[in-house]
Amino acid sequence: MDKFAAPTTLLLGPAPGLVAQVYAARRPLDGGARALVLFLHDGSFTSGSLESARARSEMLAEAGADVVSLDYPLAPEHPFPTGLSAAFEALQALAAKPAKLTSSAQTALFVAGEEAGGNLAAALALMARDQRAPHLAGQLLIAPMLDPQLGSASMREGECGHCECIYAKGWQAYLGGSTRADHPYAAPLNASRLSGLAPALILSVAGHPLNDEARRYAAALREHGGAAKELTLPALAPGYVLAAIHEFLSQAAGRAVSPPSA
What we know:
The chain is an alpha/beta fold.
């Protein structure tokens, strides 16, 4: 993979705005449409940064997306729903003028995230459905952190889920109490209504503590009539994921920008 140019900086949302970094797509999508992806980094809700998101952002750009990586507010200083609300405002700002970043009228909007960022991306898809805007072409969830109960077999096998593990600490900081765990935007895996959502590609890693909840969420989306593909991979390295992400972006973007048949 060739060396990437340094990303450009962008402010999103209401003034003073949130800082984001922009990565230009490095290959065209099949069919000629463009994919504009709002990417949300990992860090168990309490850490992570634009710099830690760089590898994933470059990977998405290599797969054919124009990527906007967002520096969203972190817990515990900013518990639920602060970070999610900020991300939704950023998403709305991107939706207002997507062609400004891609230079194409044939631009489809996506949300994507890893771990805690995958939680936020899934919640953004729920919010976009409930508010009927903005229109999303798809959601890409990478080892998403979706269930605060932490009781899955993969959590136990990874010796996680106890009160001192990073996921338990992250959920506690983000939710600040058990009552918020009932909100579908806080814990999308517990949502009772999962129909009408943007198509999803959910990537997980064999043996990873979050693997089971990723697979369960994909299954739940399909049970509610959604289009959801889940891949359990040996690793989330570009060699394993670029083809799958490129295909997902190409197909979803093509559907989003093509007029419905008469």
